[in-house]
Specification:
Strand content: 5-15%
Number of helices: 20
CATH superfamily of the largest domain: PAS domain
Radius of gyration: 28 Å
CATH architecture of the largest domain: 2-Layer Sandwich
Order of helices and strands: HHHHHHHEEHHHHHHEEEHEHEHEEEHHHH
Helix content: 40-55%
Number of strands: 10
Largest sheet: 5 strands, antiparallel
Strand order of the largest sheet: 2-1-5-4-3
Number of domains: 4
CATH class of the largest domain: Alpha Beta
Structural class: alpha+beta
Shape: globular
Length: 454
């Protein structure tokens, strides 16, 4: 949809050079595509019309989070456009939606990435090191990740198994304490973090480390360490820890552990560095503290925003359909067309389609896709009857909201189809002679256009 909006904005501009430069130009494109004039936008932002006009002409204010929310809702921006709006004005990211118990939802793409790290143990934790996803290797080597409220720091610092796993446990404990102290600088008021700190400080050795070491560290990326794995008969392996922050979950840690056969008596680690050199590293720079604090704090502020891209699992077809909103429109004919145990629901509010598949009894996987994704899967031979009616409605949702902009887009599509048809007729004349009938998709495009301009 973002690409479509840009195309519509360019068409509306009639090719005026330099008109769409910078944020003001982008804002004007969105406004034109939505068919909204300047007055309601100025009112939504809480500013005067003259001030708003100056923004479209090149003034560069920074809108607040509430102002960005008001703009996005009024202009019906999609996820990418909301993201661009937030990055420019607030300097932050959208955050994925949460489950009923407040845990971040893990999208299908991210789950696939976690699973495809096999055979390297991999997990995803939230900002307080609670485990929210893991692959089979992680579960097989460290089954504790499957326990309720599994937490890497709580396990490492408070359980006999955690203590026995890490060689040079006290050095690891010091780094974990620094990570907790770092978290206090970014979201110290978090009740879950406070509970975690209280739990680990019940260990008198951790309390001593806490009192003696005032340093900070954000992560353990690049640390190389020795560990004895209980499920391998306490065999010692050497692990390289890789830490990344997923773009859609910026306050979560994506951790991959690459492991090799260990040589415990060697002075060098698996990467050729001095063994346990990480114990003296803190990553304690003002820049990193500021960067992490801004990233996590802003992700918090967007906790309830919905990216509309995460894959969900719900208990019933009714719950899946409800994701389309109260005005959701069932698409039964297209549902039967795309495959068995499938349910499609059009969401006019979000301008997308909720695609649900029954993966097991009482388990429906839900994805939200653009109308274009579904339109491309409909074979021309199936475009008749109920399928045609539903596809027509779907095609209209895929077009810009404003009728004039939608009509312009339809005319552009018809022109492209005419060129394709002309080429195919020419080839057919060369082969057989007769002219083919116009395609069903072209008929729908012309029908939608006639309704828009009538």
């Amino acid at each position: 949809m973002a690409a479509t909006r840009r195309a519509d904005g360019d068409a509306a501009a009639k090719g005026v050079a330099g008109q769409y430069i910078g944020f003001g130009g982008m804002l004007k494109q969105w406004r034109k595509a939505a068919g909204v004039n300047q007055k309601p936008l100025a009112r939504a932002l809480g500013i005067g019309e003259r001030t708003y006009r100056n923004i479209e002409r090149g003034a560069t204010p920074k809108f607040s989070q509430p102002q960005c929310d008001a703009l996005a809702d009024l202009l019906k921006l999609d996820a990418d456009e909301r993201h661009a709006l937030l990055l420019y004005n607030v300097g932050t990211y959208l955050r994925a939606s949460s489950t009923a118990d407040g845990r971040p939802e893990v999208g299908a793409a991210l789950r696939l990435l976690i699973d495809r790290q096999m055979p390297s143990p991999t997990y995803l934790s939230d900002r307080n090191w609670n485990i929210i996803a893991y692959n089979r290797a992680m579960a097989e080597l460290w089954p504790w990740v499957m326990e309720p409220r599994a937490n890497i720091i709580r396990w490492a610092l408070t359980t006999p198994e955690g203590r026995a796993t890490y060689h040079d446990w006290h050095k690891h404990a010091a780094v974990f304490v620094r990570m907790l102290r770092f978290a206090l600088t970014t979201h110290g008021g978090d009740a879950d973090l406070q509970e975690l700190i209280a739990d680990v400080k019940k260990n008198s050795e951790i309390q001593k480390i806490w009192d003696a070491d005032a340093d900070l560290v954000e992560h353990r990326d690049g640390h190389v360490f020795l560990a004895s794995v209980p499920t391998l008969g306490w065999k010692t392996i050497e692990i390289v820890s890789h830490v990344a922050y997923p773009a859609v979950m910026p306050d979560c840690r994506f951790v991959v552990m690459t492991w090799v056969e260990a040589e415990p008596d060697a002075h060098q680690d698996a990467l050729g560095g001095t063994r346990n050199a990480w114990a003296e590293e803190t990553h304690n720079t003002a820049h990193e503290r500021s960067r992490a604090k801004a990233r996590i704090a802003e992700a918090d502020r967007l906790r309830d925003m919905d990216l509309r891209t995460a894959r969900l699992v719900v208990d019933s077809a009714e719950q899946a359909a409800a994701k389309a909103g109260k005005d959701g429109i069932p698409l039964p004919a297209l549902s039967r067309l795309v495959g068995p145990a499938s349910q499609l629901t059009l969401s006019p509010l979000n301008r997308n389609v909720v695609w649900a598949v029954e993966e097991a009894p009482g388990e429906w996987g839900v994805s939200q896709v653009s109308p274009s994704t579904l339109i491309a899967r409909v074979p021309p031979a199936a475009i008749h009857g109920d399928v045609r009616a539903e596809l027509k409605r779907l095609t209209r949702i895929a077009l810009p909201v404003a009728p004039e902009a939608a009509a312009d887009r339809v005319q552009q599509l018809i022109s492209e189809l005419d060129q394709q048809q002309s080429l195919l007729r020419e080839i057919q004349r060369d082969l057989t002679g007769p002219k083919p009938a116009l395609s069903a998709s072209r008929d729908i495009a012309r029908e939608v256009q006639s309704e828009l301009v009538s």
